[in-house]
Amino acid sequence: MCRTIEEDAPAVDHHVDMSSSTSGDLNLIPPLNFAMVDNGIFRSGLPDSANFSFLQTLQLTSI
């Protein structure tokens, strides 16, 4: 028998507000094959130094 497990996860906004960005903030480059798997769960290829600014905007707890 299978049951559905329901959890009340806190709402997390993963969108970045670019309206108040300066020109230096526009160099956000995601890692190769970056995608959202589920709410708050992402996957990608191995990031390099060019991707760090983008990853910091996601406020990740682990990689």
UniProtKB/TrEMBL annotation:
MF-aspect GO terms: phosphatase activity
Biased composition, class Basic and acidic residues, residue ranges: 1-17
Coiled-coil residue spans: none
Region (Disordered): 1-23
Signal peptide annotation: none
This protein's GO CC annotations: cytoplasm
SUPFAM superfamilies: (Phosphotyrosine protein) phosphatases II (SSF52799)
Name of the protein: Uncharacterized protein
Organism of origin: Gossypium harknessii
